[in-house]
Amino acid sequence: DDSPFIIHTTVWFSMRAVLSILMLTVLSTSFRVPRPAYAKAFQRKAQRTLSTTTSLPSTSLDNTPVAESASHKDFDTIKTYFVKEYGCYGTLYTHKRTKCEVLSLKTDDTNKVFGITFTTPNPASTGVAHILEHSVLCGSRKYTTKEPFVELMRGSVNTFLNAFTYPDRTCYPVASQNLKDFRNLVNVYLDAVLFPRCVKDPNVHAQEGWHLEVDKEGQLAYKGVVYNEMKGVYSSPDSLSNRECQRSLFPDNVYGTDSGGDPLDIPSLSFESFRSFWEEKYNPANAKVFFYGDDPEEERLDLLTGYLNDYADEWGESDARSAVSWQPKRFESPSVVRGKYPVGEGGGKDYVTVNWLLNDEPITGVESLKLNVLDHLLMGTTKSALRKSLSDSGLGEDVTGGGLSDELLQATFSAGMKGVAGEEGVENVQGVIEETLQRIAQEGFEEDDVKASMNAIEFQLREFNTGSFPKGLSLMLGSISGWIYGKDPVENLVFESALSELKADLEARGGEVWTEAVKKYLIDNTHKSVVIMNPDSEMEAKVVEEEKARLKAIKDGMTAEEVKEVERKMEELKELQAKEDSAEDIATIPTLSRSDLNREVEEYPLTVTSDFDGSGVTVAASHMPSTSGVVYATLGVDVSGVPLDDAPLLPLFCRVMMETGAGQYDDVQLSRRVNTYTGGVSASFSMMGVKPDGVAADVVGDGGRMLTKVFVKGKATAENTGEMLDIFRLVLTESNLDSKQRIVEMLRESKSRAEAAIQGSGHSYANSRLKAGYTVGGYLDEMMGGLSYYESVKSLLDMAENDFDQLRGKLENIRAVMLEAGKCRDGMILNVVAEDDAMSKADADLKSFLHSLPGDSKPSSTFQDFYKEDHPWTVAARSRMTGLKNEAIIVPTQVNYVGSGGRVYSEGESMPGSASVVARHLRTGYLWDTVRVIGGAYGGFCTLGQGSGVFTYLSYRDPNLAVTLDAYDAAADALMEQAENLTEEQLQTAVIGAVGDLDAALSPDQKGAVQFRRWLSGESPEDRQKYRLEVLNTNKDDFVAFAKRLKALNDKAVAVVTSKGMAEEAIKAGKEMEIVEIL
After folding, report:
1. Secondary structure (3-state) at 8
2. Annotated active-site positions, please?
3. Which residues does 67 contact at the CB level (< 8 Å), separation at least 6?
4. How many angstroms separate the CA atoms of 203 and 923, rounded?
5. DSSP characters for 215-243?
6. Residues in CB range of 745: below 8 A, 6 or more apart
7. Residue 123's pLDDT band (boundaries 50, 70, 90)?
8. What phi, psi does 599 have (nearest 5°)?
9. Which secondary-structure segment (H or E) carries 1025?
10. Which of 238, 226, 172, 225 is nearest to 39 (CA)?
11. Alpha-carbon gap, residue 242 to 244, rounded angstroms
């Protein structure tokens, strides 16, 4: 894998989208990456998944045949279900001794899911729930290694392995397609939460939470994984704004505190309070257990009851349950809250967000669905009423707030802007929000807009496409979002009744449904806050100095003996962290064997036809067993003729295609048409390396052979395929390139989002910066998505504001080059994924579409063979590459993102599949232990470019800079020592984990997309099978060989995203870096 193992997962269960399960595929990672803590209810809403739905009426349940549920002597059967929306049979059980509630869903889905969730409200911001979530996975009664979670991560074929902390609950979910592996995961997780080592060993609390250390100068310092993680969070302006928004609406209940932990409060959490929180919250009566999949239900209950009975025997029986109190809607006038966020010396602009608390009592399922549709109408797309009003106002750089958040006990709604100039701008943004809502309350929405929003949400509900994110986990998260508050666990999973009721209400009352809702929940709702965040160029330095002052005061109050005790504990912790797990401890972790793994690559159906139906277009069709009647289509159009200097315009061009209107449709009408007839249409630019013709797939290159295409993608029912394809043609040929105002807004948004990403995901920018120095492919990737692209966006924004004619001319040229009549169809490819019946129904529409495309069906000229010749961009880019640099990229931050790397395989060498196994072992072993556990970073990992041979070390939210670079320098020796002493068990574990990375659970459309990309890449099934067997057959010699290559690395480079102060300290410590000030 050529991308970091973490982090685009910044969970906090996030991703803003209607019924947000559809956006959670990015979470399919085997790491406890940022989880859904604290104020993220405002930012994004992954747990909105199915909470738009209502309970299945008792008559429906009573009249539906229900499969026989398992009977077990230790459980009472409370209720049985048939969830017809998802074809699941279910049973609700209660464990007799412990009162633990269990929802067991039976399906034919092989991707099995288990989860245990505890209600964990905390009235303070010490981060105890968050720290405990990290800590319980650090050893337990039966599984006695220091971190069983990491052992599972190293040697499991899981499809999901993670843990999440919300403002009021903590979830521990796992998933696997392998039954043996699934049971191993469930066993380890149950033992971890019910019998954790951390409540007996203060060192775990110290490592994962916080502890004091004495540095080389004799000064005190705070250390700890969560402590440092949250310092990173509190460096993010978006996170600080979200936190203040949540606090402002919830002054009286736990949602006003930070469950992730405030760095100012985390050091007040004692070990005794930490242990007491576990004792109070982690009892089975306070837990909800969820099972899903095709495994035998009786065996689920047998496994679970063993742990529950053991808990009762050891800790006693308790029926204590935690609850979240309601925040009364008591504000008589809006609360105005002001805060600050850190910026560089160049300064910044204001944030302003208006927030409402929507309910202080339960709402019905139909009301919840209504709120979600209203949210789509107001904020769901770039053309939704409120979002468009804000964007069109030009008062800020980007829209913020995210609209509706309803995954907690109480729902909220937020809208605003960032990048706002001064107090007048702040006031004007509030005025736009108020005026827009008042207008809607008086005039309502266009009937066609309502129809489009209703269709969009109904399509997503019925499609239930979670991608590679386990369907069962989506159902679990939807269920939990009501279950922990006393609802029936199935109530949030069903939607037919609520949908029918809302449609009937719309039929009877029309637009009154929405005007009434806008007045009730927003205009007449006085429990409202306005949060204004002002930039502070001195804030970063102040935070650092204040921490130093606190620590100095602590030390000044200590005796010499107390300081020595801090040093003693610090050394004790470091010795524990550095100590290897014994063979006996490792043997306690359940594992698979190589014989449990599938040796064959799974291939998916794909039929490729050149000049399909005489159209001149190549069609790649995947006939799948079932796609629920949906047709998935992707049209690729070659853009290799676009000059390299204009390539950074392509992402903007793709946005313009979809967001400024096309043909007879203005921007709102186009968005309305998309949502009315399809499940979504999008446009994106893709730059994809391909295997050179006549060269083996494992031979390293420099990325010179590649494809560059604009892809228009969509999905629709078979009956609406013609409408979807007509939209494809429309946006491709007639998009409005003359909308200066909207294009300026897009570029401002892109600039703002890039700045937030550099601060929050600095590791990815460091990674692309490193790779840019080694291959032309890496150079182009950085040009199109790294810091260079950010600089291009700033230049394009200046051009759009001051010389729009020039920018428009460039966009027009891109379209002219794409659609050159005598050539374009030669470079067009249409990928279609559907079941046979849907494919047949769509056949006529597909053929008609292909013949309607621009260009000649018999092209007079053809594109070069990109598998045999270097792409024009790579030829031009090679002359621009400036070589390797060591760079410190300066942004306002309290943490570091540290990168270093080089080329372990040279151009022309063969890189075997075993290299990925060794790299993964290094990532989950030495780097995890050294950079994360000992160093205190939130993540320490590495990447290996399969086609480039470039290897990079990276860290995430790291308190160290020079120390981490030293750890990277020592990695090769550490790997060699491990390789020379590698046991067969360790080797097997490494292979199993690497195979697990290869075998994701995919939805039908994803399978089609994967096979399409395989074909585009030029790989053959034989290439893939060879690679898989090299992974499976990895041996000790492969580890030694890779360690030698790493040791011999001599063309290393460094790229770090850091603060100026930390960069200067590292330079004083002897690290050579050029300072590059970005923000």
Report:
1. coil
2. 133, 208
3. 82, 89, 106
4. 24
5. -TTS-EEEE-HHHHHHHHHTT-HHHHHHH
6. 391, 392, 394
7. confident
8. -85, -10
9. helix 1021-1032
10. 238
11. 5
Q: What does each C-alpha distance from 341 to 350, 533, 536, 740, 1059 come to in angstroms?
A: 9, 7, 6, 31, 15
Which positions ≥6 away from 805 have C-beta within 8 Å?
none
Amino acid at 363: I
Backbone angles phi, psi at 421, to 5 degrees: -90, 105
Q: How far apart are CA 53 and CA 493, in angstroms?
A: 6
Percent of the chain with pLDDT over 70: 94
Which amino acid does the sequence have at 243? R
The predicted pLDDT at position 319 comes to 87
Report which DSSP code applies to 22: G
Sign of CA dihedral 23, 1018, 705, 1052: positive
**What does the alpha-carbon distance between residue 997 and residue 899 come to, in Å, rounded to a whole number?**
23
Contact present, 466 and 24 (Cβ < 8 Å) = yes
Rounded CA separation 526/367 (Å): 20
Statement: residue 577 has pLDDT above 50: yes
678-703 residue pLDDT tens: 999 999 999 999 999 999 999 999 99
SS3 725: helix
Beta bridge partners of 292: 105, 113
Q: With beta carbons less than 8 A apart as the criterion, state whether 886 and 1072 touch.
A: yes
Contact 941, 4 (CB under 8 A): yes
Report the chain's C-alpha Rg in angstroms.
28
3 state SS of 174:
strand
Cα gap 642→635, rounded to integer Å? 18
What six digits make up the tokens of 1024?
Answer: 């893939």
CA distance 709 to 699: 24
- Side chain identity at 1069, as an amino acid letter? A
* Contact call for residues 632 and 1008 (beta carbons, < 8 A): yes
What is the distance between the alpha carbons of residues 896 and 1056, in angstroms, rounded to a whole number? 7
Nearest-CA neighbor of 779 among 931, 1018, 950? 950
Helix axes 776-785, 787-802, angle to 10 degrees: 50
d(CA 860, CA 822): 5
Q: Does residue 55 register a pLDDT over 50?
A: no
Which has the closest alpha carbon to 126: 243, 263, 324?
263
Within 10 angstroms of residue 889's Cβ, the number of other Cβ atoms is 24
**Would you say 675 and 720 are in contact if contact means Cβ atoms under 8 Å apart?**
no
Whether 391 contacts 745, CB under 8 Å: yes
Sequence-separated (6 or more) residues with CB below 8 Å from residue 951 = 901, 902, 903, 904, 919, 942, 943, 944, 945, 1046, 1049
CA distances from 791 to 747, 763, 774, 796, 1077 (A): 12, 18, 21, 9, 12
Give the pLDDT confidence of 135-187 residue by residue, as tens digits.
Answer: 999 999 999 999 999 999 999 999 999 999 999 999 999 999 999 999 999 99
Helices (H), 590-717: 650-659, 667-677
Task: Encode 65-118 in three state secondary structure.
Answer: CCCCCCCCCCEEEEEEEEECCCCEEEEEEEECCCCCEEEEEECCCCCEEEEEEE
Residue 281 phi, psi dihedral angles, 5° rounding? -95, -30
Q: Could you report the per-residue pLDDT of 971-999, keeping only the tens digit for each? A: 999 999 999 999 999 999 999 999 999 99
What is the token pair recorded at 859? 């092209």
Whether 42 has a pLDDT exceeding 80, the answer reads no
Q: What is the Cα–Cα distance from 633 to 828, expressed in whole angstroms? A: 13
Alpha helices in 444-559 (DSSP H): 447-463, 471-483, 496-509, 512-518, 539-556
Q: Measure the CA–CA gap between 715 and 635, rounded to whole angstroms.
A: 12
Cβ proximity of 959 and 935 under 8 Å: yes
The helices-and-strands tally (H runs, E runs) of the chain is: 38, 27
